[in-house]
Amino acid sequence: MAGMLDGGRLPSIMRASDSWSQVAHSDDVVDFLPMALALSVGILIAAIAIAIPVALHARVAGRDDQAADTPPNLLPLLDGPTNRVDDRLRNAVVQFDLPADLTPEQMAVLRFDGQPERAIAAALLDLEARGVIAIERPKVRVTVKAGADRSGISEFQRRLITVLGHGELTKPLENRDWALSTLYADAMGRGWFRHRPDYASYGPRLWSAACLGFGFILGVYTANMFLEGYWTFAMPLAAGMGFLLFLAWVFTYAERRRPIRTPKARALATQLAGFGRVLGATEQGWLRVHPDEPYPPTWAAVAMSLGVSSEAPGPYARAIRR
């Protein structure tokens, strides 16, 4: 015990503790407390002053253009047939048939514009139903069938097949984007969006990543200052870190509010959301009546595109290399 007190481990711990306490109670650190509180309050006020306008702008700028009236062939869940659904289709109507002759990937773009993985998964399931590709489960492995009839498939699906089959594509960095560019160009050509869905959210994502990066760096400095005993100096740094993290959340929220659908696309998306409700209920009924039979493959692609499938789109999307 005497040896430990003379030169062992315990005295070094006690000395470290005494050193931190001495710094924490030093005149320089304690005298900085009023300034630290003022800076922290100022940073929090700046956070409110900046974040609220950004959030309000995101809500207004990312709002779909309103359709003039409720699309035809709908059974509204609200009081009257002319009532509009809310901005992001949460109170969607019921639709008992597909509203237009659309491919599954086009439905996915209309319904979930910010989820290209869902469009890829829906296209692959549609190709499987057509007998063009084979998908092995549970680990999703996609194989292109030689000699399969490829008539009637979309350009987006043709590009996916090229990526899967290594075809004529020679630039690996363009694999996924090369296919998606056709999908989004088609959506813009049909007048569905005011901005390309794959470009509209890049700005908010970049700002969110920058805020997270600077917030992490500031957090490291904050922890270092506190561990050295300068707790009053760490207070405004911690407030600044919280401010940056909050801004990152605001920009992430802004990213989710984009892109903006045109009135025509909003009407179609509303109908697709309503049909998704019916298809989701039908799928559950099918599984109860036919527990040992798979859901019809053609409807499996539509269910994936409308977000009512029991499968996640991620494993299918990962089959297409970035």
UniProtKB/TrEMBL annotation:
**Stored Pfam families:** DUF2207_C (PF20990)
Q: Any stretches that span the bilayer, and where are they?
A: 32-56, 206-227, 233-254
Which keywords does the record carry? Membrane, Transmembrane, Transmembrane helix
Matching InterPro entries: YciQ-like_C
Keyword Membrane set for record: yes
Domain Predicted membrane protein YciQ-like C-terminal intervals: 95-279
Q: What is this protein called?
A: Predicted membrane protein YciQ-like C-terminal domain-containing protein
